[in-house]
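Q: Sequence in, structure out?
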Amino acid sequence: MKKWISLWAIIAIVPFYASHSNACTGITLTAKDNSKILARTIEWGGSDLNSQYVIVPRGYEQQSYVPGGAVNGMRFTARYGYVGLAVEQKEFVAEGLNEVGLSAGLFYFPGYGQYENYNPSLKESTIADLQLVSWILGNFSTVDDAVKAIQDIHVVSIDPRGSTVHWRIADETGKQVVLEIVNGKPNFYENKLGVLTNSPGFEWQITNLNNYVNLYPGAATSKPFGAIKLAPFGAGSGFLGIPGDVTPPSRFVRAAFYQTTAPQQDTGIEAVIQSFHILNNFDIPIGIEFSTGETPTDIPSATQWTSSADLTHRTIYFHTMYNSNIRCFDLKTIDFQRVKYQAKPLDPVKQQPIEIIQVQ
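A: Exactly. Output:
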């Protein structure tokens, strides 16, 4: 019997693909102990994404949605267990880490990607873009294996009104690639920098960094200027001219410079904490991307959650717009052979906890 995607889910998916405030910023850090850290934000300023975490055991079988809402696309069974962070539906994992240290995540990519048209005769090898992360995490241990297999499947959008996404895939060796599907063909780019945002394409974003070759950490030196002397107002003047808006190119530039100039931490957990501090700079407040009078008021932030994964130590961390306390899954403590599939809200209580300090 065919399953069909629910009406509420279709209504939810289309806004998730829509034009404003679905922004993502990703960075990569390596600690002195060689721990590999991948961190990112996910934004949507229109409504609560109802984000969940999912625990997926080995042997768990899923089937992909296809255009029109039917669940009769590719079947796939998890060879590896993983922890994922999902949006809108538990099947739509946007970021995750598997038990062998492979990380995968999707990033919004409007106006530049183009999937192939859905061919029902190929449904057994067709997967929805919002389910590709789940397939990758469940089936592969290395970037190279994932890249090879992706070329034999067909990625489509559930709803033709939606935009495309692109993906970041990394393994514990430090290898990382960006996947962008353009004109129906997968294109892979080695991401040596480790930064990713949204549109335009990854190669353009890397080239655009050359426009900021004048930036450097520290303070500019004082110098004579005709009859007067010019001096910096304060620390950080070497970064004068770095773009401060929330567009994807500007966030890419800021993330690249913040990541590259950050001091290397000794351990993985120190680098994880550092990644949250860096990405705090990319929180998008409600209101900035909406016209006057159109701002939604039912969520506290457009940055709905931030995650950080230690691929070396098999841990994934997150905090949310409702609760800035960092929470963690240690995959080494999960028996993926015995654990049951589960999906639970990131925030059981949607309220920032506040500690009252008692004074005696």
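Residues 36 and 174 are 6 Å apart (CA to CA).
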